[in-house]
Design brief:
Elements lengths: L1 E2 L2 H9 L5 H12 L6 E3 L1 H13 L5 H13 L3 E3 L2 H12 L5 H12 L5 E3 L10 E3 L1
Helix pairs in contact: 1-2, 1-3, 4-5, 5-6
């Protein structure tokens, strides 16, 4: 397995740099295989969402599509893939922000009965309780 950093994935997804994007694509499409996948950590996923929203000003739907592309890649191993999928669907369906949905899904994964929050929007998710 090979760890893949946020900047490699951003360059591959957005194809916005004439030098780095082709290099990133070579890594993703030629270096990685199902037997030797690229590992994508939760921190990397969170950074990707932040970069796409904050720097590239992508809509929630476009960010969800980018995350879905990563989830569908046979050559990528995504940490807590199920929880990332849950968060991606919450973002796609405008149920919650990606980060709030991921926090809730990871809490459930860890065995939490609820996650306390002051965030009223997050509290709409079944995993949260307004404090």
């Amino acid at each position: 397995m090979i760890g893949i950093d946020t900047n490699i994935l951003i360059r591959h997804l957005d194809q916005d740099d004439p030098i780095q994007s082709p290099r990133a694509t070579r890594i993703i499409e030629h270096l990685l295989t199902e037997d030797r996948p690229g590992f994508i950590s939760l921190v990397t996923i969170a950074e990707i969402v932040w970069v796409l929203r904050s720097i590239y000003r992508m809509s929630d739907a476009a960010v969800a599509t980018a995350i879905e592309q990563l989830l569908q890649a046979d050559t990528l191993a995504i940490q807590n893939e199920r929880e990332v999928y849950i968060a991606m669907m919450a973002l796609r369906n405008d149920t919650a922000s990606f980060d709030d949905a991921l926090i809730g899904a990871l809490g459930t994964w860890a065995g939490c009965t609820t996650t306390c929050t002051f965030d009223r929007k997050a509290a709409r998710l079944k995993e949260f309780k307004l404090a």
